[in-house]
Amino acid sequence: MAENVAEKAKNAVIGVIRGAGDIVEGVRQTATDIVTGALRGVGEIAGTAMGVVTDTVKGAVRGTKETGVELTAGVKGVVSGAVQAVAEVGGDVIDGARHAVRSAIKSVAEVGGDVGGAAVAAVEGAIDAAGRVGKDVAGVTKGAAEAAVEAAGEVSKDALDAVKKSLSTAASVPRDVVESAIKGSEAKAKK
């Protein structure tokens, strides 16, 4: 199922990007449709949802890369759509945001993209989704920022440095949340 969802997301995103004027909105809606479609009728949402979210984000990043458009637009859209879909099927939005952002950072690193820019776009996408569905925006923002820093740290020191710098200078992400996420990752690294 994992490769199926990732491939479906990749192909759908390629089609949307080639025919869309608004890439972020097109990718957001596509991700929402894929995740909600995959999860409708599934009894156990928690574990299944996060796998579908991860695979959808991975496929969408690959599709965005293949079309040659800016990865950050695709990342923002797919994270927003995936988080919105998790909310729509009754899943844990903060956990959904964490998984979507982690997958975005790792997938962008795999395709050789700008992980710093992707981190900002992913956190912005998670914030957008939380606002759209009326969920805990502060909790989602915190979870998304932490996930971005953690995932970057798993990729490489250069990726971690790029994500820390990008999130720290992004006007769209609250500075106190970023500082807390960075301190939290540093504390975990020391253990």
Describe the structure in your own words.
The chain is mostly helical and 191 residues long. α3 (45-67) packs antiparallel against α4 (71-88), α6 (115-133) packs across α8 and α7 (137-155) runs antiparallel to α8 (157-169). The chain is built from 9 helices and no strands. It has one domain (2-190).
Task: Describe the structure using short key phrases.
9 helices; 84% helix; 191 residues
How confident is the prediction overall: mean pLDDT? 85
| DSSP, total strands | 0
Domains (count): 1
Order of helices and strands: HHHHHHHHH
Shape: globular
- Percent of residues in β-strands: under 5%
Structural class: mainly alpha
- C-alpha-based Rg, rounded: 15 Å
User: Which parts are unreliable, with pLDDT below 50 for 5 consecutive residues or more?
Assistant: none
| Major beta-sheet overview | none
Contiguous helical run count: 9
Q: Helix coverage percent of residues?
A: over 70%
N-to-C terminal Cα separation, in Å? 35 Å
